[in-house]
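TA notes, week 10

Several of you asked for a full example with nothing omitted. So below is the full record: structure tokens for the whole chain, then the designed sequence directly under it. When grading your own attempts, check the secondary structure regions first.
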């Protein structure tokens, strides 16, 4: 049977209702190994099989500031009792504290599928019930999402259709400089679903066409080996300084594209004054940049020459903006491309997030595909997504956000569905303290992960293998049928089924379901897609699609507004959707906000934590907490592929041999990674793929604190977010700064505690 996931499409083999194996489809040129590992997790001991309520909450103990959340036992209850508890609590909170007191979490990927989208289902349910406080932006790209509309205009994600595609790069480009690399492991995934992986072959085509790649990253393997990339190890969080040094070299040598800057941008003169040091007495020249970045002056000078004399493309990866002042490398990369002379030329110029998902650089978009219909939220309040702990700890406090002043609401009920805040958020000990403050936390979960263990009411949900749906990935030109492979495990139900029962108790079942069953919804959304696309799409009937498992969508031809090629050709006829109609090297709007941590043009701000900072005396290693190769975020950490990557049950941490030798660390040892925020155990892997002074520990290992609820307690499993800082990039975006963390590492000499990440809490009936 057909299976569609964020990491690819597969065939599920089932015998008498038992999932036997999952196999890649034969037409996928680079199938992800995550899929077959789903079999291990399908029926493991961590499955949530029945509704469960935290014992202290059920017994009426003080619900706010109850430090037992995360450490308490659970009582399994009937579905009828569970629906009563949740519906009654929603009524109570709304009547006593207002709709704003309900937080509709569900930040995260959940599972592929147009109908069974956990976030869409939750938000539809809560909006119909009166509204909820929502979150804005993403942990992945918050700084980018806020700053790019000021600089190049348009929707925060519109740049995806405005930058060169891989086939254009192969045909027209000679040099790609990738700040933050373009790790092929990240291209395993595509939000919404994925039919065939194409990025690897497209990258190979670029190399075969003679395109040269430069990897500006602390990690050599951030670029695939077959690209033969030149590696420039850069001190983490100094990409902006490197770009400024390149820009200064272009400027003083007269290598910059004066014509494009004059016609197609605004504010270059003010930025140039900063570059040469007229504003602060510090020229941002190659020697200055070399002292900050660790890249030599000669290399910086040569890179400036190559960018301006060759057909070049500047790429910036998402990771570089998840840091202190993360807006700056995004903004500066656009400015550098505008100076280099390739902006707005075929296959050249600027782009972001290549290889972050298989869709990026593969296609500019895809036609309309219907999904679960949204309902307008009656509550206008929202919080920046990474400020959830601040909101819980400091309700009523005001913060800046993109020129606005926001008052953080008092949240009394958290409803989380389809995401894992104890994976995404930074400084998990601080989040633990914050998580004790609301009255009630309701979670839909398939497994007893950390978020489930830190909830008050846990409702068991079916996995994507246990429900009917169809998938359509971001920019992916396919629809993939997702017929139910097997019945839901235990007493688990779909999110839609649960919300239907709750809506019935609360008096709006018909509005929520529109009188359709789940399979009727799936059929309706497919037929709506088919009707909207019309005869040109030639989509088969639903029944034929359901039998054949895949349907091809027509190519998306746009129009794609905000083209840099059109801007270069005639900025008067084809202005960008910015206040000036041009690239805003200097933004009058951002400047008017008066932020001391994000000025009117890109500039260098010293990070709070970095290898040249004072804190490096105590914690001399910079932690790179990047995306894992063995799972999607924390999804299927209990799957076979992720489990197979562990070292003695712990997440692997990569250490440069020089740093390891000075600490007596050998490969395979269990080490303790620590700073003032917390500590975790991990399995040592020695490799010169990471530069000296840097360690790499991927995100997504299910957090496994020795003493849940106790701030600072050791994590047994290797979750780097016990170490990362929960502070915003800046007042502009309030995005996360996960990659601004200094740590140290030592051999762990005490008896190893058992890993209990995949062990359910104590359950009573």
């Amino acid at each position: 049977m057909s299976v569609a996931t964020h990491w690819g499409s597969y065939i599920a083999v089932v015998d008498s209702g038992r999932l036997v194996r999952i196999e890649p489809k034969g037409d996928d040129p680079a199938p992800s190994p995550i899929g077959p590992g789903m079999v291990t997790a399908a029926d493991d001991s961590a499955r949530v099989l029945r509704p469960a309520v935290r014992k202290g909450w059920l017994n009426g103990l003080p619900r706010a500031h109850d430090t037992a959340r995360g450490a308490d036992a659970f009582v399994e209850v009937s579905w009828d009792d569970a629906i009563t508890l949740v519906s009654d609590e929603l009524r109570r909170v709304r009547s006593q504290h207002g709709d704003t007191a309900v937080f509709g979490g569900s930040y995260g990927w959940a599972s592929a599928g147009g109908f069974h989208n956990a976030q869409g289902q939750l938000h539809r349910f809560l909006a119909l019930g009166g509204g909820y406080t929502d979150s804005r932006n993403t942990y992945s790209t918050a700084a980018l999402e806020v700053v790019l509309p000021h600089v190049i205009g348009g929707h925060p994600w519109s740049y995806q259709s405005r930058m060169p595609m891989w086939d254009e790069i192969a045909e027209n480009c000679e040099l790609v400089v990738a700040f933050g690399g373009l790790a092929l492991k990240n291209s395993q995934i595509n939000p919404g679903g994925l039919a065939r992986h194409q990025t690897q072959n497209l990258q190979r085509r670029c190399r075969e066409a003679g395109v040269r790649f430069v990897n500006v990253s602390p990690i050599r393997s951030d670029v695939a080996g077959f690209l033969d990339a030149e590696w420039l190890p850069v001190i983490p969080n100094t990409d902006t300084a490197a770009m400024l040094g390149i820009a200064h070299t272009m400027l003083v040598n007269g290598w910059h594209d004066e014509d494009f800057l004059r016609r197609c941008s605004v504010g270059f003169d003010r930025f140039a004054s900063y570059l040469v040091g007229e504003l602060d007495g510090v020229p941002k020249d190659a020697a200055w940049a070399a002292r900050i970045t660790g890249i030599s002056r000669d290399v910086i000078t040569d890179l400036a020459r190559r960018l301006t004399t060759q057909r070049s493309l500047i790429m910036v990866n998402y990771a570089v903006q998840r840091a202190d002042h993360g807006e700056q490398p995004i903004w500066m990369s656009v400015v550098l491309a505008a100076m280099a002379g390739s902006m707005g030329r075929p296959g050249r110029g600027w782009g972001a997030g290549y290889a972050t998902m298989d869709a990026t650089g593969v296609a500019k978009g895809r036609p309309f595909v219907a999904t679960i219909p949204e309902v307008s939220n009656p509550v206008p309040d929202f919080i920046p997504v990474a400020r959830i702990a601040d909101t819980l700890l400091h309700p009523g406090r005001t913060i800046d956000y993109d020129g606005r002043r926001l008052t953080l609401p008092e949240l009394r009920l958290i409803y989380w569905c389809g995401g894992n805040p104890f994976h995404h958020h930074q400084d998990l000990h601080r989040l633990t303290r914050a998580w004790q403050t609301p009255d009630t936390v309701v979670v839909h979960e398939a497994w007893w992960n950390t978020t489930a263990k830190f909830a008050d009411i846990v409702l068991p949900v079916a996995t994507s293998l246990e429900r009917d749906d169809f998938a359509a990935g971001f920019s992916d030109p396919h629809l993939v049928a997702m017929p139910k492979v097997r019945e839901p495990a235990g007493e688990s139900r779909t999110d839609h089924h649960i919300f239907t029962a709750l809506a019935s108790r609360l008096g709006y079942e018909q509005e929520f379901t529109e009188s359709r069953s789940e399979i009727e919804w799936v059929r309706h959304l497919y037929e709506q897609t088919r009707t909207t696309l019309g005869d040109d799409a030639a989509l088969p009937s639903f029944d034929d699609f359901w039998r054949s498992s895949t349907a091809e969508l027509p190519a998306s031809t746009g129009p794609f507004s905000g083209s840099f090629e059109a801007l270069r050709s005639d900025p008067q006829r084809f202005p960008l959707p910015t206040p000036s109609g041009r690239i805003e090297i200097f933004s009058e709007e951002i400047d008017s906000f008066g932020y001391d941590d994000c000025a009117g043009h890109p500039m260098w701000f010293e990070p709070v934590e970095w290898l040249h900072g004072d804190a490096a005396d105590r914690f001399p290693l910079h932690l790179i907490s990047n995306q894992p190769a063995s799972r999607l975020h924390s999804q299927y950490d209990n799957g076979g592929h992720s489990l197979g990557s562990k070292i003695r049950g712990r997440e692997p941490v990569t250490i440069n041999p020089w740093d390891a030798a000075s600490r007596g660390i050998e490969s395979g040892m269990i080490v303790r990674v620590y700073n003032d925020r917390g500590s975790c155990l991990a399995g040592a892997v020695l490799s010169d793929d990471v530069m000296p002074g840097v360690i790499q520990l991927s995100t997504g290992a299910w957090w496994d604190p020795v003493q849940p609820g106790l701030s600072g307690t050791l994590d047994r499993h290797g979750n780097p977010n016990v170490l990362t800082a929960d502070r915003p990039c800046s007042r502009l975006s309030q995005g996360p700064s996960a990659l601004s963390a200094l740590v140290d590492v030592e051999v762990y000499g005490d008896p190893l505690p058992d890993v209990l990440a995949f062990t359910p809490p104590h359950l009573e009936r």
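The domain at 142-365+569-590 is CATH 3.40.228.10 (Dimethylsulfoxide Reductase; domain 2). Use that as a sanity check on your answer.
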